[in-house]
Amino acid sequence: MTAAIVLVVLLGLLLTGMPLVFAMGTASAVYLLLSDIDLSMLLQRMTTAVDSFVILAIPLFYLAGELMNACRLTERIVAMARAFVGHVHGGLAQVNILASMIFAGMSGSATADTAALGSILIPAMKKEGYPASFSAAVTVASAMIGPIIPPSVGLVIFGAVADVSIGRLLLAGIIPGVTIGITQMVFTYFVSRRRNFPRHQRATLREASRATYRGSAAILFPVIIVAGIMSGVFTPTEAAAVAVFYALVLGVFVYRNVGPGLVWQTVLQVTWGSVRVLVIIAVASAFSWIMVREQVPQLIATAISTVTDEPLLILAILCVFLLLVGLFMISSSAEIVLAPILVPVVVQFGIDPVHFGILMVFTLIIGGGTPPVGVLLYIAQDIAGVSFSQMVRAILPFYVPLFSAILILMLFPQLSLWIPNMVFGVPGG
Question: Which of 42-46, 134-138, 345-349 has the lowest mean pLDDT?
């Protein structure tokens, strides 16, 4: 009964427009007062949540990605992608998707992907005769790969708040990220053939080699992180620190386009962004403790078991739920609130939490390309200069490859689990 009151308070405050972090904090305080528990417990749970070596990976990966963006590698990534797939039906649309897959290994952020690649590729696609709305739509859809391929801040957040191995999660994102990209490229191929979109002449071996050499720094970024984790040389948090060092070396000594002023500005920007995330994690940890204390995960599991105990159907139900949540909540906020509650539920039904983490992050990020929140839509719409209604109509067909990718990942969990199980061993095995 007390948990129900807390949830009603939370929803009521959110409906009034109160920011999530304050709504959760107030609801948590109400619970403690009703349960006659000292309010100091709220502060204790909050400080314990962020007093963690693992949590350091979040601001460090943010900083590494922003420093790599400051190196202005985006144009090199686009040139490299053009050399490999520019001749395929859809030309620059295919380049857009492949560039997003490469950029994902550099930023781990769908928002950064949309803004950085969109500012280059959307005008270029419009110039070659692609409809502005289609150009924006393919940019938004491909940007959703960003939080899946390592280094993924979304997966780090999931691991931190749900107590799931971040090393496993980062390695688990490799094949699913590529799978999501391939489904979009296949879809774009058939659409482009039907609509007779232009394509470029196939690059020569010399041109492809030169483009690869110029863009090799972007490729090496995720390779260093993944190889380091797989070999056991460093932990995910240490990998994030190595990534920051690598980005600084590139910007300051190799390309020489990152000076002390830009570094300081980037650090300040990342600091404020990280503080927002960490404060939400702190408050959500206290809220999640309340939900666990009131046995909410067990109640959810019991409710689901009355419908089915088949793991695949349970995943399907949860994915539909997360897709609906993503329509109204920023993906990172939804992860922080729901992951600690839902992970015990899926574990109870024998579902690997790493597999669920990949599905959760991806389904929630689709909300970033869906009204009414649709942050990615607003960014791409502004760059393309189209109305929001045009933007929404253009993105609708891309739900076909996006939902197809979710279905493939649900049906074949080994796409997520093969690499982490190969490196770390099968849990409990």
Answer: 42-46
